[in-house]
Structures are given as structure tokens and as C-alpha cells.
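Q: Here's a chain of 203 amino acids. Please give me its 3D structure as C-alpha cells.
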Amino acid sequence: MNKKSLMLLIAITITVNISCATMPDTKIYSLDIHYDMTTKGELKPDIPIVIVVDSPRYLSQAFMAVRSSPYTLTIMKYSKWQSPPSTMVAEELKKALYSIGFFKDIRIAGIVKQNFYSLRIHLTRFEQFDELAASYGILSLDVDLLSPEGVNLYHNTFSKKIKLYSSDDYTALAAGLSAALKDVMDELRTATAKAITEKESKK
């Protein structure tokens, strides 16, 4: 190896070492939600219910999102959710529905088969919003419960804005969105059981 090649190799090695030394650690955040086990009725439909969640592309990946204006959204390279928000919402809804002791079978899928009830969630926001004076956790989603015949039994739009207290990282965001999602799931599990009970009682 000649002197020129050796010097080039040393320069590349130094650059790589500096880059590695200054690269921040990747932090992974998760939700922390617990549901009370309750019974909302004796009816246990034989027809399973399927959860279908769709979202904008950035909510189907694990990187955390921070909005600084209605026009600007930043994807945080070194701060991630444990799973993509669309996946976390589906899993939390499944847990919430199981907690009421109402359904025999709850599935998460992209396609609804014949004779299945379906809960369709359109997740629109799951992010931090920074204003001049404060930061907020924002959760927005639309819900439709469809019968096996395709009749809409229940519709609602949920929108939560939780003020975040100061934090050096995104722990406050994870806590705030956990609280917001818990409120939504508590209401949604009760409404779902009620709507299906009314439908099944008419058979």
C-alpha cells in the first residue's frame, strides 16, 4: 500500500469513528394502558369481530412524529415507538374489547370475511404538536362499526389534545397519548358492545 492510499484509509477511519461517536442513541417508547375487566352483558356473539385500521403512511411506521405547524411534520430519526401507531391502536382496541368479557373471538386483519362484524378505524393523528408556549399530544381517529350485512351500527370521531409537561425526551408524549387512547378505548368498547347487543336482540 503506497503512502497516498494509507493516508486516505486513515482519513476514512477517522471520519467513521467521529460519526459513530457523535451519533445519538435511538430511544424506543411504548404505551402504558390498563383496562378494568368488566362484563357488559350476557350476550356472546358467535360471529367474531374484526379490527381494521388504516392511517396515513407516516403512522404506519415506528418513527415518532412532531408537528411544528399545520404545514410541517418532522419524523424523528432517533426516537421511535415500540410499534407503528396504527399497530398499537389495533392492539389496544383488541385488549379493550377482550376486557369486557363480551366477544369470543377478536381478530386484527386487513380484509373482512363474510359474516364478520368489523370495527374500522381511520387513524389520522398520533403525534406531538409544538406551539410557542406549550406542547401537546394529539390523537384523532374515526370509527365505524359495521354489521355482517354491511350496515353501519355506530360511527364516531374522536379527537384528543393533551397538554404535555416538560421532558428532556418524549416520555411525556408517550404518557399523554396513553391517557388519551385509554379514554377513547373505554368509550369505544362500551359503545361497540351496546350496538351489537341491540342488533343481535332483533334476530
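Q: Can you summarize the key feature?
A: Strands lie at 27-29, 49-54, 63-69, 72-81, 106-108, 117-130, 135-146, 152-164.
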